[in-house]
Amino acid sequence: MAGKVKWVTDIEKSVLINNFEKREWVPVTESEDWNFYWMSIQTIRNVFSVDTGYRLSDEQLVNHFPNHYELTRKDLMIKNIKRYRKELEKEGSPLAEKDENGKYVYLDFVPVTFMLPADYNLFVEEFRKNPSSTWIMKPCGKAQGKGIFLINKLSQIKKWSRDSRTSTFVAASSGKEAYVISLYIDNPLLIGGKKFDLRLYVLVTTYRPLKCYMYKLGFCRFCTVKYTPSTSELDNMFVHLTNVAIQKHGDDYNHVHGGKWTVSNLRLYLESTRGKEVTNRLFDQIHWIVVQSLKAVAPVMNNDKHCFECYGYDIIIDDKLKPWLIEVNASPSLTSSTANDRILKYSLINDTLNIVTPNGEIPDCRWNRSPPREALGNYQVLYDEEQAQSESAERDLRSRSGQLLGSKGTKGSAGARPAAATWK
Amino acid sequence: MDEGTELSLSIAQIVQRLKGSHLHSQIERQAKDCLHRPEIKLESLKEDVHSYLKTSGWEKKLQNAVYRELQLPPSHPTAPPEHLKEPLAYMRKAQASWEKRILKSLNSMSTELGVPLARQVGVNLSRFRPVYAPKDFLEVLIGLRNPNHDSREEIGARSHWGLIQVPLNVRDIPQLVGIYSLFTNPSLFQTPPRLYLGPVLVVEQDSAAAQQYSRRGCPTGLRADLWALILNSTNQPQDVMHYEQLKAGVIQHDLLVDNLIYKDVKLTASNDDYYFVFEDFLYQVLLCFSRDTGVLEHFKYNSATPPKSYLHGKVGDEDYAVVYPPNGVVPFHGFSMYVAPLCFLYNEPSKLYSVFREMYIRYFFRLHSISSSFSGIVSLCLQFERLLQTHLPQLFYHLRQIGAQPLRIAFKWMVRAFSGYLSTDQLLLLWDRILGYDSLEVVAGTTVLAFSDNLMEVTSLASAEAVLADLSTLKVIPLIQIFLFATAI
């Protein structure tokens, strides 16, 4: 019989440890021989660094890709998405189609964004086109709402300009204070008069070929204060930021539900008030943008076979029911704010482990990464490049041999569905 | 009085009621306006106007309005008004003494806190308490006795083991199967013709057909329209205006009940995983509701009577009586949960308001007033106890022996028609049936389904309550089907 998995973590969270213990895995220290290491993004940097790096064996698995920041740093994600669009455009891909205003029809899913200070002049040009717009400033490397503020006047960000001679600019140019500035979604969908964003969990087991899974139990995070678009409230961060880390300091924070509403509630509400068709379209679009964001970073990602990653996707829906990708987190919080939250996060880790360590056995990173359907738990296949390719090859073959398309009915693969549903 | 006479009296009554309505004046104006149309000929004036009203959809609107009148409890023209409220004297008496208690509690709160019933501003909410909770109300129902009926009897298989000791006729399982036959035939459930029918009904705007359809459950995407249609809540411009006027009233005057509403929302919906996002909508609906004097009309057929307060020094003088709160309904702990599920369906406050108001005056009032109506809470309790005794006699006996009377656990579910207990998707499917069958009876049946043999292990009321604390995973509709289907054979 195979031995027991030896695990390490530098994140002391009960949802992790309970899951390891349930599998009767053995805790070891970092310096011992381990099979499974659930680590922070600080640690992953060391694991793969040139100087201190380990040589991982086939029986070792870690929960991050070495350069996950290509997706999870706000500036790099934008850069990669912009590059991906250009490449598709160059290839003449139908996905890169633009409308009469020059906007991508299928790839316009992140708010207009610039790096500061690097793109300062480009930003000013864009700002002047629409001087009444509100923009949101976010430090590139920080998470959980830290360092975020809103602006609606150029003077508020003068210190990021190229010609500024203030000391802040020196810090900025050194890269430590780099910001992204994005057009603020000022027409968010409101429910009960309140603003919210979506937190969805996405598991990637390999980037080339891309295999990714969407967790069904996502949730909406609600602001505790009623939404007012007026600029006088710009300083009231509680209105604009939905991160629970920030919300907790609001007066109305509720410890029973923590401002979290399940995605199934959202679906029921939208289907009831707007109809089934538009609701399905919205969820298809959300799946679509997640897949596109992953495809955008796939070519630059170090697809190390010892790695998998569970991302926290933050999405905002506007009042026209268009979803916008705001950012992707490499280390979604495993802290539980409510009882339901604990259940959710425990299941998330449980289902993740069931996929990445089949049968709870010692991992073999050469495995085929095609878990059986019954191992998926609350995950659903979002996209499986391998399967999609074999299916399209099969389709080509059939259409060439003169067979009728669609004789098998609609495709059973959930991976092919969102793509087909949005751009066909 | 023979049937024919009765029918013509009912017709006369409906005509009388509709004559004063906005719809009447609208149709009148339409009829006048259409005289200029080329297709209206003088020689066939009556027929032409009639056919114009038919093709322009006004006839359908009239039909739906008549249908609504038929849904409300009929007022028997020769019966005294109190019989329409409640035919049984002992029930009327019990309701009246319950109301006295509520009013006393309300007045003492007003005195204690130094807050007059109306006209106050900015008070400390922490000092307010709900006027009453379902469990206080349950004690009253348990104490109900029919003076002409001796309910003392030896406990035996045929006697009633439950807490409700009044003899009312409630349906047993074979009778329920007869009535709810659509439930028991799963093959009829979501057939393709049915799926196509839903949108057609919405276009056709036929209340009666929509109600039939709702018996087998509404598709999520059509429910809001179908319910509004069944309830004839059309959200006309005058309805919106009415709602805006009520809102203006909220801004102008504060009422003591406002604080009870705030408190209730804070204690219930604000802490609820499903409904907390709608907190603001609940205020918008409930504060307007308490000021809506149109609600008073339902007291004609509600056994309850609106509480009155008298101007200073004029106690007992009806000339100086003021109904308080203006709509006559004193909210109790959990009242806001009648509105909460509707927030999933309507995102426009005026629409939400009119649907809630109609649901209240048709159904919800029966869940907290003492009456002999078969849809009333007393009958539902009794029916639940009888169904459980028949269906799971061993379990009932066991629970009774350990001092965990099933009704003590289930009463709070029934008072709220399960709002806040079932998951919202299941709750809406249940409420589809309330509307479809125009009855709350299905609530009693659902309550039985929460009980199952796994409760045989419990040894106390507290542990039974713990087992039944979370109903959010209960899939009621399939269970009802199985229950009725299995017991029918």
Enumerate the spans of chain A where pLDDT stays under 50 for 5 or more consecutive residues: 164-176, 403-424
Could you state the CATH homologous superfamily of the domain at 68-110 and 188-348 and 374-400 in chain A? Answer: ATP-grasp fold, B domain
Quickly count the domains of chain B: 3
For the biggest sheet of chain A, the summary is: 7 strands, antiparallel
Explain this structure:
The complex is a heterodimer of chains A (424) and B (489). In chain A, the strands form 3 sheets. In chain A, strands 9, 10, 11, 12, 13, 14 and 15 form a 7-stranded antiparallel beta sheet that branches. Chain A has a 4-stranded parallel beta sheet with strand order 2-1-3-4, covered by helices on one side. Chain A has helices spanning 14-22, 41-47, 69-72, 74-91, 120-129, 167-173, 237-240, 244-247, 263-274, 276-297, 339-356, 385-400, 416-423; strands spanning 6-9, 26-27, 36-38, 61-62, 113-116, 135-139, 149-151, 179-183, 196-207, 210-215, 219-222, 260-262, 309-317, 323-329, 379-384. The model of chain A is unreliable at 164-176 and 403-424 (pLDDT under 50). The longest helix of chain A has 22 residues, at 276-297. Among the domains of chain A are: 68-110 and 188-348 and 374-400, ATP-grasp fold, B domain (D-amino Acid Aminotransferase, Chain A, domain 1), CATH 3.30.470; 112-158 and 176-184, Dna Ligase, domain 1 (2-Layer Sandwich), CATH 3.30.1490. In chain A, α4 (74-91) crosses α10 (276-297) and α9 (263-274) crosses α10. Chain A has 13 helices and 15 strands. Chain A has 424 residues and is of the alpha+beta class. Helix content of chain A is 33%, strand content 18%. By secondary structure, chain B is an all-alpha fold. Chain B has 3 domains: 3-71, no CATH class; 145-230 and 366-489, no CATH class; 238-362, no CATH class. Chain B contains 23 helices and 2 strands. Chain B has helices spanning 3-19, 22-33, 45-55, 58-71, 81-85, 89-112, 134-142, 173-179, 181-184, 192-204, 207-214, 220-230, 237-252, 256-267, 279-290, 349-362, 377-391, 393-401, 406-415, 424-437, 441-450, 461-467, 476-488; strands spanning 308-310, 321-323. A two-stranded antiparallel ribbon of chain B has the order 1-2. In chain B, α11 crosses α12 (220-230) and α15 (279-290) crosses α16. In chain B, 40% of the residues are buried. The mean pLDDT of chain B is 86. At the A-B interface, α9 and α10 of A face α12, α15 and α20 of B. Chain B: Residues 217-438 form the Rab-GAP TBC domain. Chain B: This is TBC1 domain family, member 19. Chain B: InterPro entries: Rab-GAP-TBC_dom, Rab-GAP_TBC_sf, TBC1D19. Chain B: Pfam families: RabGAP-TBC (PF00566). Chain B: It comes from Fundulus heteroclitus (Killifish).
